[in-house]
Design goal:
With 152 residues, this protein is mainly alpha-helical. Helix content is 41%, strand content 6%.
Amino acid sequence: MTDTAKKPRAREDREGEAGWTFIETLVVLGIVLILTGTVGFMAVRYLEKARSVSARSQVETFSLALQSYYLDCGSFPTEEQGLEALWEKPSLSPVPEAWFGPYIQKALPLDPWGNPYVYEVPGPSGLPFSIVSYGRDGNPGGEGADADLASY
């Protein structure tokens, strides 16, 4: 045998083991970043929607609890007593004697944006009460995630 037949060709051996080029790596990273950004954008949009749905659900829960409070006590809590009267017996006058609470399962939470719910007695248009979350911005009015969510 000749020497050339015994020696493997270095170039032919490396062709089967070729790796990613720098350009191919950059292209893959670019695609991954685009996909990650798209998923992140969609997740934020659904997070805001989930907060709005959660606030509506909490307002409905408070409304039902206020109805139960009214059936037991004969009146709704005053604005001074607030929604806290659903969790613990009010100490401010008029103190209800027939309070059989708590009317909600845990202490009064903040809205999903970290703002307190606004409770008014009487409510607008002759309603006995109103409960409002002012949305993400915490101020009356607004659109989208800043829109008010009310019991009326």
